[in-house]
Design brief:
- By secondary structure, the chain is mainly α.
- The chain is built from 6 helices and no strands.
- The chain has helices at 2-35, 39-56, 59-75, 79-95, 103-119, 123-140.
- α1 (2-35) runs parallel beside α3 (59-75) and α4 runs antiparallel to α5 (103-119).
- 33% of the residues are buried.
Length: 141
C-alpha cells in the first residue's frame, strides 16, 4: 500500500510541469478570447486554468485566473459575482509570499474592485479602495 502511494505521488510530481504548461496555455487562450470580446468562452478558459492552478497550489496562477474571471464577470455586468473573487485576489496579494511584493497587481485588483463596488452603489468602500489604488500607482510613477 505504501509503495502504491509513493508511486502515485511520484507520478503526480512528474506530471506537474505538463499541467502547469497546460494551465498557462489556457490563460493565453482566455486572453485571446478577451481580445475578441468573447467573455463567456474566456471565462471558461480561465476557470479551467484556475482548477489546475488550485491543484498545483500555485498562488500566482490562481490570482491571475481569478482576476481575469472577475474582469469577465465585470464586463458582463455581473459585479456582485466579481467582488468576492477580487477580494480573494487582494487577500492573496498581501498574504502569499510569491505575490506580496507585487504592488502593481494589487493596484490593478483594487481598481477592478473599486469599479465593481461603484457599480453596486457601495460608494464609501469604493472610494476608499480606489484611493488606495491611486496611492500605489503614484508610488510606481
Amino acid at each position: 500500500m505504501a509503495d502504491e502511494r509513493q508511486r502515485q505521488h511520484e507520478q503526480a510530481r512528474n506530471e506537474e510541469p505538463a499541467r502547469a504548461q497546460h494551465a498557462e496555455e489556457l490563460l493565453e487562450r482566455g486572453d485571446e478570447l478577451m481580445d475578441e470580446n468573447n467573455w463567456d468562452e474566456a471565462k471558461d478558459a480561465y476557470m479551467a486554468a484556475l482548477e489546475i492552478f488550485l491543484c498545483l497550489q500555485d498562488d500566482e496562477g490562481k490570482t491571475k485566473c481569478q482576476l481575469q474571471v472577475a474582469v469577465c464577470l465585470y464586463l458582463q455586468g455581473e459585479f456582485s459575482k466579481a467582488v468576492p473573487l477580487l477580494r480573494e485576489c487582494l487577500h492573496l496579494c498581501t498574504t502569499s509570499p510569491v505575490l506580496s511584493g507585487n504592488e502593481l497587481n494589487r493596484a490593478i485588483t483594487l481598481l477592478a474592485l473599486g469599479v465593481c463596488l461603484t457599480a453596486l452603489a457601495q460608494y464609501t468602500e469604493a472610494e476608499a479602495v480606489l484611493r488606495e489604488a491611486v496611492v500605489i500607482q503614484r508610488k510606481k510613477l
